[in-house]
Amino acid sequence: MPLSFLYRLKHVQLPVRVVEPEEIRHVSVLLATGLIEAEITNLKPRAPYVPSRLATVIGITESGHAELAKMGEMAAPARTSMQFSRAFRLM
After folding, report:
1. C-alpha distances out from residue 59 to 30, 49, 65, Å
2. pLDDT one-digit tens code per residue, 34-60
3. Helix, strand, coil tally for the chain in percent (to 5)
4. pLDDT (tens digit per residue) in 57-70
5. 3-state class (DSSP) for residue 24
6. Cα–Cα distance, 85 to 70 (Å, whole number)
7. N or C: which end of the chain has fewer CB within 10 A?
8. Residue 28 pLDDT more than 70?
9. Is the Cα dihedral 15, 2, 37, 47 positive or negative?
10. In angstroms, what CA-CA distances link 13 with 46, 49, 50?
11. Quick check: bond before 15 cis, omega within 30?
């Protein structure tokens, strides 16, 4: 769910890169609703099975923080495939 993904974003250092197609869809929804600031780019395929899209989440907007406040505290976030843009580490 996009709101669960927003909650996970709250707990990582931004900016962060997202490569999984399902997570990119979450980024797209959150970006369209104004809850995050992000860039989604199409990549030129270099090999089979390489993701063709990349999203970089830059930050959570004031509206996003307000939505997080409404949600309250949830269970600990699950592991994700998000990568830190500086070190490109998997979480």
Report:
1. 11, 29, 10
2. 999 999 988 666 666 655 688 999 999
3. 35, 25, 45
4. 999 999 999 999 88
5. helix
6. 29
7. N
8. yes
9. positive
10. 29, 28, 25
11. yes
